[in-house]
Each structure stands twice: as C-alpha cells, then as structure tokens.
Amino acid sequence: MNSKIEKIAYASTFVIAFGWPVFILLLVLAAALFGSDSPVMKGMVIIFALYFITALLSPLIYSIFGVWIERIHFRALEREERELSDMTVSDLKTLPTNWKVTKTFFVCENVVVSNDYLKRLFWTFRKIVGGRSNGFTRLVERARREATIRMMRRAREFGANVVWNVRFETTIVYTNSSGGGDGRNGAGVEVFAYGTAFRVE
Fold it and tell me: How confident is the model at residue 201 (pLDDT cuts 50, 70, 90)?
C-alpha cells in the first residue's frame, strides 16, 4: 500500500520532526535583515509559535495519521483478497488424493509493518502492566494478511492456483528507547510467509 495519505503523513512527520532548525535559522535571518520590531519578524514569530504548538501536538497528529493509514490498509487487504479468492491456500501437509498436481515450486514473501507513535506508547505501558494489546494484535493481522497476499501473487506469477503447507515466521522489530527495562520498544512486526505452490488441473 502506497497511498496519497501515506505520503502526506510521511511528509508532515518529516516537517514536524526536522523543521525546527530551519525555522530558527529563518528567525535569525529575519531579525538580522529586518530588525526585531519589523512586521516580517513578527510574522516569523507567529509562524514559529504555530510550528511549536504543532510539534507539541505531534503525538496526537501521528496517531490520527496512523489510524487513518491502518483503515486504508485493511480496505486494501480486503480488496486484494477478493481478487485472489480463486486461489486455494492451506496449512495442511497432505494433499487430496484426487488432485493432479503440476508445476510445483517454493514461494515466499515477507513484509514489515510499523505501528504509529501512540500505539507504540501503549505497547510500552502494556509491557509494564501486562494484558492484551489490541493495537499490536491488529498490526500482526495486517502483516500476516499482507505477506499472504504477496505470496499468493508470487505463486500466481508462476501459474499456480494453490499454495499448500503454508507457514509463517513472525519477528518483532525493535527500536532503541531511553525508557523501559531493556531499552527497546516494539516499533513494528515482520512476517515471513512461505509454502509450496503448484497448479491443480
């Protein structure tokens, strides 16, 4: 999934996180060129104040974008699963005896999906007090479904209509953090999906 919403979210995040040096430089230049009492300088101060307020509210902004992207991702997954509904995917090892199998080969795909800022914060609290993390549960679901879809598309490229004996490997992607017991927070999850693809005539 690579939607316009994602691009807007990433651009906004970049500006909020790394824009403050530019604003400070512009304030210094405005003061040097126009004087501290000039209308230009006052306008720059107002702009910087708005930027500072936005930076303070950035966790909320990140979370809104995160929820929005999550919903878009789920809708995209549902659409792609409907497109691939003619394929059979199973974790069984034994094949039906009446199947005539051709073109057998191994397929695998992986995906890394990240959580938004607020969900990562809740994940940190959950590590302390314990309990079920609904945000992380949805994250794993998104990653598993995305990896499965990618694996099915790869199988279809080779002419298969079945993926059998499907297995998943799941890994939490950590990021260093100053808080928490081991200094690490779960930033996302990687899911590796693999199976045997073939065509049933």
Answer: confident
